[in-house]
């Protein structure tokens, strides 16, 4: 029996109805908690606490869960694309790793021609020489360009001027492509409507065994980031075609003026696409493995930059200026994130400490209502990701310690880091590119 096709707008409406129902139930259940908390801290702070650490997160997670349960991504129609493409790599001090990156490009199961452009962004090592040696070893068509101005956007724009193919892929110099990655990401683009200008690939962790921080991030990329990408992809408004691995229509990027002079250059560029009425898709089977920060300091620098990039996107294109109702909603969710992150930083962490001593004023049984929803959401995605891995001849690595820490501690770590990023952008502190 043929399954009935459910339009995207109906999935959007249905997910909203169910998540609003969950929100109303949460408000009803939290009345006593709010009243008791109001007597201690006053009603404005009590409203902020209840809304910021329970109601809004519960609503967002429930919307994501209901949306993902209805997600049925259409199959890739063009299985063996032959379009010529350019892989654009901005590199800075990548002498040790650039060979592996180029080797994986050489190993691609792709029928079209692949041109590679490596832009050496004023490296202090032999990145350019290592790239040329690898290209000769693997028989790659490679061009090395120099860009002396520090900043990834400068390097990407220098390379963009030399791209002559209708499609191009941006790839981080420390990111390894799965052998089917280019075939799947280009196939998705060619199977999509004409107004799709970019397809974001699926990024997973390459160095997951390096430290406890990389073990935690493995689950962040595998579950949390992938959940958000699938949600946004369902509504055809993926908010970030990440520079680490994404496919673009070259002419659209050039018409947009290339990558802007901001910290979150890929975020702002993507939001410009959406503002122009274009669509951005996500392809979960186009997989690449990237190197993530192995220390807390490196992690904090990276994620605070991501938070700044989100604010830059909101400043460039306001949610209400987006033409699509889906883009309005999804970028509007980002508008609420600073409110939630500040609430978690100021209230959840101190509340958890108080709960350990028997004071359940802030953190108690009611605040844990989000947990089963989160487990359902991640459980659903885990099963989906296992099917994706199986189709790619990959296996999900056992990492129980990382999963427990990710589930229980990750938000407590991320929120203060994000708040620091918001403060940096608010105070216009000096940008740190590296």
What does this structure look like?
Keywords: Glycosyltransferase, Membrane, Transferase, Transmembrane, Transmembrane helix. Belongs to the glycosyltransferase 2 family. Pfam families: Glyco_tranf_2_3. The structure is a single chain. The chain has 434 residues and is α/β, with parallel strands linked by helices. Helices cover 56% and strands 12% of the residues. It has helices spanning 8-29, 31-41, 43-69, 98-106, 127-138, 152-160, 181-190, 212-234, 250-255, 265-275, 296-316, 325-356, 370-391, 400-426, and strands at residues 85-91, 114-120, 141-146, 167-171, 176-177, 196-205, 245-249, 279-290. An eight-stranded mixed beta sheet has the order 3-2-1-4-7-6-8-5, with helices on both faces. Strand 1, helix 4 (98-106) and strand 2 (114-120) form a beta-alpha-beta unit. Helix 8 (212-234) crosses helix 14 (400-426) and helix 12 (325-356) packs across helix 14 (400-426). It is globular and about 70 Å long. The mean pLDDT is 91.
